[in-house]
Every structure is written in structure tokens, then in C-alpha cells.
Fold these 4 entries.
Entry 1:
Amino acid sequence: MIYKYSSFFPPIQNESDLRERIMHIHTSCFALCKHVLGKYLQVAGNIGIFSHDENEYTRLINIQNTLTDKTKSVYGKYFFLHSPYVIPAKDDIQKTTYTHLYIRKPDITKPYAGDIDFYMEPEKYSALKTSLLTGKTKTGMRLLDRPDLDLIELFEDNIGALAYIGKMKAPAGYP
């Protein structure tokens, strides 16, 4: 079952809790992608964890410090994992590898467990974006309202994570 963030998930206390949350976000975002688009997309390589209070945020940053190279980042927030987080194939979802981790500060407007960025080829992304701009919207999809990011947001009230579609993959390899 996929749940919206609530008391179902207690605050993350340790790396084991973090890995459980990553699995939830992974499963939720792939379900969201399939539900909204009718198919799965390739992940860009990053996974975001949303903290829900200052104490959880502090714990998550401490955990992140042990799992990532804080001197190597993309945009100063996506930190390279020392070892990629690989989730084996299950059912019709292919094996997935996450290479970057970021922790979001508490935000009462985002009561979700976290997010994943999916990658779409630039031509297909442009066509999808154009269809949204011209009013051919699909339920559960909208343009992200941020001038600094060109992303499409996937959402559903009953799914406890957000997914974003972009036309960029995370940098390959490790520093």
C-alpha cells in the first residue's frame, strides 16, 4: 500500500529508517508515474527525502554526511552517494540506481515522504510540456511553478511522494 505522509511514518531516526523511506518513495513515485503517464520512465539518479521538523532534519543531515561526499554535489544540494543505492527489479519495474541524495528542509506545504526526478528525452519532454501549456492537461500533472527549474510535477492526493520529469540526467560516475 502507498500512503501519504502521516503518522504512518514516524520520523527517521537512523539509516535503516532512511532506507525504508527510500523504498517507500521509490515505490510511490513509480506507481505515480505509471498512473499518470501509463508507463515508467528512467530515473534521473537522485532521490529526495523531505524532513518534517527540525529534529528530523538534523538527524537526516547527519545520516547524509555518512552516506555522501559533501564536497561533491550538483547545485549544492544533490550529494554523491559513496555507494549508489540500487533497488532490484520487482514486478514490472526495472532495477533502479540512485546516485545522489538530498534532504529537504521542513516545509508545511509539502507533507510528502520525498521525491524522485525522472528523465525524459528532450524532444518528448518538449512535446509533453507544450501539451500542458496549450491546455491539454492530464490529471495529476502540472508545470512546476519555479522560474529556475524546467520540470513537470506528477502528483496524486493518495500517493505520499512527488515525482518530477525533466530532460536532464544526473551526472554519471563518481568523483
Entry 2:
Amino acid sequence: MEDNLRLSSAAEAYFVALDHDLALHTLTIDVALRADYMAFVAKQALDGKSYKDSDPVVLARTDPGPITTELRKHSQQFMEMFLARSVDNFRAVLRRKPEILTNSQPSISVETLLSFSSKEEIVHYIIERRVNSLAYQGFKELQDWCTARGIPIVLPTGEQRREMPEIIATRNIIVHNRGLVDEKYLNASAGASFKLGECRRLEPRDFFDVSTLLSASCKRTLPQLANSTCQS
């Protein structure tokens, strides 16, 4: 029963966070498109011009307005924010298994220890620090650590197994290197088309593709998370 509750809690936390990110992403784009469309229609009416009946999406493709144009100028930063959040949301699933720390020996200063008000806060801090450290090293290190503790991160297809290290590496350079390709990214991303020091450009579909892959993995990892027995 307890395991089932933990599974439900982990699943709910992950997918609720993802739903909020998707909603905000869609809302931002929708507001920009509709604002430009309303301005366009108003201008045509004031100028006494006729225009073909269209919609905000078609207008954005054929004659984008100033708000849509401005949003596109910042599309890289926009996509970086959502992609990094998506990966961090996936990593947060591990916090639902505090027993993952059994037989480990994390170092924590007395000063830091005394700053927490509960055992749960301490566990959260230690897991978060460890996951951050491993994820920064690369996906393989994080996956091996989780597998050794009975929580294998499951990737259904060979293509997804190739994509996941690049996704984690992309998140790391967004957070730690302003999105610029570094040696760790190149080592983790077999066949990457980006060069050292170059910006890892993101396309509009990247956020949705990453969310789809992480969701598929999360659905398969969560049962392992609920039923695993921590190993030394």
C-alpha cells in the first residue's frame, strides 16, 4: 500500500509539473499570436482595407506582427528555459525514494545540517546534491548510480537510449555554460552536429520531443521506483 502511494505521488508530481510547463508554453505563444492578430484586424478596419479571412496562426506564418517577431528573436532563451525545466522535473522523481541513500555516506557540515527544520528537508537536500553532481557528469553516471540502487532509468527504444545522454548534456550546458557546447556535451553526444564553443541551437519542437521522451521513460521508471529494494 505504501509503495502504491509513493508511485501515485511521484507520478502526480511529475505530470502535474509537466502539465504546468506545457500550459505556460502554449499560453505565451497564444497570447502573442492573438495580440498581433487583433492589432492587424484593427489596422485593416481603420485603413478601410479588405483582407482575406484568416486566423492568428496563418497570419504569423505569412505576415508576423511585432510581438510574434519579438518572441521569435528570443526563441532560444524561451526554449532553453522550458527544456531545462523538463529535465529537472524528470530528475526530481528520484526524490520520491529517500531509501536511495541507504548505505551511502554523504558528507554534510554541521552548519548546513542545523539549517534544516526536518529530516525530510535533509534527505531532499542530500538527494538533490547527489543527483545534480551525477547528472552534471553525464547521463551514464546518473543511470549507473540509480541502477545500482534498484531504480533503473528505463528507456524503451534504442533511439531514445541514444537521445537521453544528449538531452541531459543539453540541460547541463544551458544551466552551467549559457547554452554553449563544451567538451562534456561533445563526449556525451555521439554524432553531435555542434562544435565546441558553439551555441546549441534549439528548435520549437525540441521541448515537445524531450517532454515526450522523458514522459515515456518516467512511466516505465516509476514502477521500478515504487517497488525497488535499495542495494548497497
Entry 3:
Amino acid sequence: MSDDFGTFTLPYCSFTAADADGARVGVGVGTSVLDLTAAAATVVPAHAHLFAAGTLDVFMAAGADAWHKVREALLVGDLPAEHLRGQDEVRLVMPFAVADYVDFYASEHHASNLGRIFRPDSEPLTPNWKHLPIGYHGRSGTVVVSGTTVVRPCGQRRAAGGDITVGPSARLDIEAELGFVVGAASDLGTPVGVEDFARHVFGVCLVNDWSARDIQAWEYVPLGPFLGKSFATSISPWIVPLAALDTARIAGPTQDPTPVDYLVPGEPWGLDIALEVELNGEVISRPPFAEMYWTGAQMLAHMTANGASLRTGDLFASGTISGPGVDQRGALIEITWNGTEPITVADGSQRGYLEDGDSVVIRATAPGPGGQRVVLGAVEGTIAPARDAS
């Protein structure tokens, strides 16, 4: 299925083709892909060298001035037809090299639902939740491009009776998220403020942070997620420039209590992005990113508040996106209330969590200028049976 990006979104990708040598940088134009590696000498001659390697790494590292000049040229330029290819003629590959990966926990609705599931007699949110964007460092080496098969992970699990077993996860889940891709690096020891968000973040992508809930439940105390999350994180192959989301920017929910100084919002960096989650071709949820409590700018500011440096290719994700409605939950653990309220899928079978052969697709759009929609593309993956863990 081809995405129609129109002529405004202009998302970037990396692709290979049977008749081309190596990877190429592409730009989504309508339902076509502009081979920017081939066309750059004509379309953006001063920046042609940024696309020669076939991935986005060099371009992202060039900084915000280069990003804006290239986008302006693409928006107003007469794009050469001889360098346009149909999306079905190319194979989309990993668009950039992931440096570090951080996953946040920025949805109040998601965090509250999990608190109610696991701590029904306590306050749903932990005491720190409204004071800082909670996150953890993930494993960049297992971030994979959309379409990569996800092998069911194996690991330790603790049964209700206390026995410890090792085997395939029986509670394999999804997490519908938005990822922020860092372009411009920062210096070690120098925090990046909320006001510098657009200077460092190149664009966004869709993320499915697959989660083995049973493995996670046994291992995460006291240091947090580890093997239950690190086996695979899928990202969409299209990186939508931050500038394409100007019309989608909103203030976001009111934050109470007021955050500490370095997290006080400056410019509005909430985003009105509408997601859809499909399980085996059927839409099971429509999470709204507009409901997220913490913005991408606040996540970036907190991630670097201790002086941690940014590198080109850093990826930080929002955590599960959920809204207040039952049909707006971004993970099966919420949708099925930890498997106790299974859903019925198109073939009549029921799901508490994912089964082998299940396919998940996450799509998203946002408001664009003149009533257009900014299409963010899709991230998809299919579950393969576990390999022998013995």
C-alpha cells in the first residue's frame, strides 16, 4: 500500500532499488519517491554532498539551517520527473544510524491505567510522575525498520505460584509511540533547553516499542525495563521534518503542578497527531498524541538536564500514546486490561496479547495547511515464533 504524502509533507527516507547502486536518500512526493541522491545536484546543488552516502546521517548532522534550505528548495522547486520512482519500485531501508535510544512514559492516561492495573489500592501515578518526564535508556542495536519480522522473545517469567521458568513470552504487547530523531549534536556537560528543541530535533517517526509484559514484570524491580523491552523496537521508514508539523503544533494539556524551571514550556510543542493501530487489518485503537502530558521539547530538556550530550541519530520516543477513551489506548495491556478483557478480532478469535502470525500496523496523520493532512506513513511488524531458548 502506497502512502500519499502530497507535496507539502516531504518526508525523507533511504531506499534501495534493483537498478541503482547502493542506498539512496529519497523524499516522499505524492505516491512517488524522489531520488534525492541523484537529483540533488539539480534541486539543491549547494547541499548535494549531504545526500551522497544514501542515508540521512550527514544531512541530519548539517544542522537546522541546511534542513530549512533543502526543504524550501523541495517545496518550490520543479522536481525532475526522471528521478521520481513509484513507492512499489523501491525497498525502504533504515533511514539513519541510531546512536542512542531513550523511551519515555509521557502519557498520563497510559501511566494512570497501568497504575490502576498493578496498584489498584494506591494512587495510580508515582509521586515523581508530574514533576519530570520518566524514561529509560533502551538498546539502539535492536531498533529496526518497519517490515522487519519480530521474533517472539524468550526470558525468565515468574508464575503465580512463585516458580521461575524460562520460555517464550506469553504476554507480547505493542506500544504505539512517536519518535523524535536528533540531527544536531550537543556538547557534553551542556544541557539543551526547551527553547532549543527545533535546533536539535530533525524530525519525527512512528514507533512500535514491542514489550514482553511477563518478562518485564519479573525483571524490572528495582532498575526498570531490560530484556522485556530490548529485543525489538520498530520505526517507520519515513522521517517527517519537524517543519512539516508547524500546523499541528498545540499548547498541550495544562500541567499541574507547574514544572521546575528547566521544564517550563516555552513555545507550544504539543502536537495534534492522530494515530491508528491495526491488528490483522482491523483498527483496534485511535490514540491521540494531543493528549500527551509531556512534550517532546520537555523530554529533550530532561534527557540532557544532567549534561548528557546529544549525538546525530539519537532517537527518543514518547512512550505509549493513550487518550481518555477505551478506544484510544495505545497498548494491549490497557485495551484488554492485562488480558482480563480480551478483544475479538476480525476472524472471530480473541486476543489478550499477540499471537504468532499477528501483524500490527500503526499509522498517523496531522493537520496541514489549507485543510491538508500531513501523512506520517506507517510502522508495521509481524510476530514470528520464538527460537529455541534452551
Entry 4:
Amino acid sequence: MRPAAELLFLLLALPLAAACAYLLVLTLLSRAPPPPPAPVRRTRFDIVVPAHDEAAGIAAVVASLLRIDWPDDRLRVLVVADNCTDATAALARAAGAEVLERTDPLLRGKGHALAFAFADSRAACWADAVVVVDADAEVSPNLLSAFASRLQAGALAVQAHHGVLNAQDSWRTQLMAIALSAFHRVRSRGRERLGLSCGLRGNGWCVSHALLRRRPCAAFSLAEDVEYGIELGLAGVRVHHADEASVNATMVSGEVAARSQRQRWESGRWQLLRTRLGPLLRGVARPGGVLCLDLLVDLLVPPLSWLALGVAVLLLLGLGLALGDGGSASAVAVALACAAALAAHVLRGWQLSGVGRRGLAALARAPGYVLWKLLLMLRQRAGGGAEWVRTQREKP
């Protein structure tokens, strides 16, 4: 029985230790970067807001975008009212946005809405770059300055920090703020220092029209943003990280809405693993394959909750081996090292999230959250399309 337990420990320890070591390296490199030089304020931006039945909040999003510190004649706000059955289009126009109305009962989803808007922007021959902002977000005033400074320095794609707007609403949103801070800020800072791609994170990203002409956005999965970021990496294009700018979105705090949102995120992740694993492996072998290698590792590293569950199992198994006849403490040491690396990553995420002491209390509820996700995964059906199923927004 003991050799079988040792083999199980080894099989579990190797990938977990590799993942935790990878996160520790990025954590150690997560010092705030120096601010970039101020840009020349000449770059023209089309800010695209894909919206499906967002009448309740679309005016606030447009107002936030129109407050950006950038010349008024150098930006346009384009709201894509995609298969809407409410007053999204009318309210967006009244708030000062240009509206593109799209109706297609077959080709549904955020990816199709973005492709529609990008084609319109390209046909207008006006903008130098497009920016994507979700319909429940609030942006920092320096968003376009941060993008322009990098585009003018030669970048083709840029991602701002994607955070949580309503972080203090509940323990669930506090956990999300910590997780997104670790995923988007800690890891992106580390990748930026290493000259890697921080990837696209769905909200608050920018690509130049020169890049769109060369590599059109044709990503239609449930994780269309990550998919397009991978396609850019396969083409040798890295996504730069704009740490000083932020786009914060509303996260759900209720269990029912959170379950629906989490199911879509997990389904999108599995879709990408099935469809992009092979191309990334082949990309690693090509010149400049380090971008593909990091994007591959990023895709393979499980969410923090699954990683924590794996480390807990590893620790229990290590204790069992150590307490057995002739047991060694080395298994426990490996498990504790993984736990320490993961804890450092999570605590750095907490430190940068701004949720304060309440966030530490929320972390105490993480084991229950991990169990909830495990049960959710066991109930979840395999597969799933890319249809746009709108998350129930929080009431103001």
C-alpha cells in the first residue's frame, strides 16, 4: 500500500509544485512598474461597449467613458446593442454614445458583437485603435493615456487592470476582488517584467487597427478574450500590461447568479484547453516560443480554488506518508512549500486588491467556496455553446 501512496503523492506533487513555483516567481516580480512617459494626445480611439439587454446600467457606463481624460475629438463611444429586447440602444444614444444595433438569432455572443463593431470601426477609417469595455464597468480617467503611451512606443495590444467595482458588497465579491487582483495584477506585473504577454482579460483591452488588419479578431468561444489573446501569442504578438489604468466591473454577490457566471467561465476554460492546447504546444517549438510557453502554462494552471484544494490533498497525503512506518518528513516539506508559495501569491493579491481586513475574513470562507465550486463542477454538463447569456446584474 505504501508504494502506491508514494506514487500517488509523486503524481500529484509534480504538477502542483510546478504551478506553485510558477506563481511564486510571478509574485516575487510583482513590484509596481515605473509609470510610462506621457503620450502625445493624438491617437484616435473607438471605445466599443458590447451590450445585451443592459438598459439598467448602460447610461452610467457611457458617462464613465465620456469622462476619460482625452480630447473629445479623438474618441468615440460605440455601443453595440446586440440582440437586445429592451431600451439599451435608446438609452445609450441619449447618454451620448453612437449605437450599432445588431440582430442575429443564430450568431449570438460577445465575440460576434465585437467582430461586428470592429468591422464598423475599420470601415470608418477614423480610429487608430479600438478599446473594449464591458457594459457594467467603470473606467479610470487615464485609461486612454495609458493605452496611447504604449501604442506610441510600439505596442500593438494592451490590457489595463481588470478589477471589481463592488468589492465590498459581500464576502463573495471580496474573494473575487482578491482573486482578480492575483490573476490580473500580480501575474501581469510579473509577465510585464519578463517581457511576456499578459493576455486579454475580457474587459479593458486595446488593440491597434494595424494589428486587426494583420490578425482579425475571430474569437467566438465562451472565453473569446483569452482565445484572441492566445491567437496573438501564436502570431508572436505580446499583450502589454497597463498597470496604472483600471477598468472595474460589477461582480455578482448572490449564489444563483454567481453559479451561472462561474459555469460559463469554467466551460470557456475547458473549451480553450481542448482547442488551443495543440497549437500552443506547436508554437513553443517555434522561434520566439517563450510567449506560447507562458500562455500554455497560464492555461494549464488551475484556478486558485482548485490549486488550494490540490495542495490540501497533497498535505494530507504527505502527513499520512510521514506518520507511516519508516516515514519521511520530505513529503510534508514538499506540501508545505507548495502551500507557502500559494499563500504568498494569494496574500499579495489581497494586498493589492484594496479590500482591507474584511478581505482576510472573506479568505476564511474560502474552503466553503472551494467545496461549492467542486459540487458545481460535478453537476455541470460538458461542452456548451458561446451564446450570450447575460449575468443578472446587482441592484444599485
